[in-house]
Amino acid sequence: MSKITGKSEMIENVEFSPVDPSKVAERLRAVADQSVEQSKETFSKLSSDAETAQTVVKSTFEMARTTSNELLVRTLAALQANAEAGFTHLEALVAVKSPSEFLELQAAFLRKQIEDSDEHAKALQAWMLRASEDVSKPIKDAFEKAWEIRKAA
Length: 153
Fold this sequence. Notes:
InterPro entries: Phasin, Phasin_subfam-2. By secondary structure, the chain is mostly helical. It has two helices and two strands, in the order E-E-H-H.
């Protein structure tokens, strides 16, 4: 007879079925094999995800490098055009014969500089918008792909 703790009744003639050690070993082996297989699958997925992330990061940095180089080239071109305009204006000022001609030349130069600056700013803004989309595209595509895979799972 055995007594269950916390209960006032007794259990009589409790029988336990005999345990077959070979079946226990088989079951443990099956569980271990299943665990190993799941671990392999998980590692394979993690490895694949890591490779995808590495590719995305590499692509993003490459695009950022290309974009920054192009930005530098555009900025240098604008600075060069501005310097050339300044020297041309200076040459024109040296040849001025009257104060009214000086003021007229100066006003035209300033108006042209403001127009050029406005054009450069608009072009740079449009280019930066396109560049930011280009740089973020690999990351955006990777997240969309991951989201679709997650939805399907």
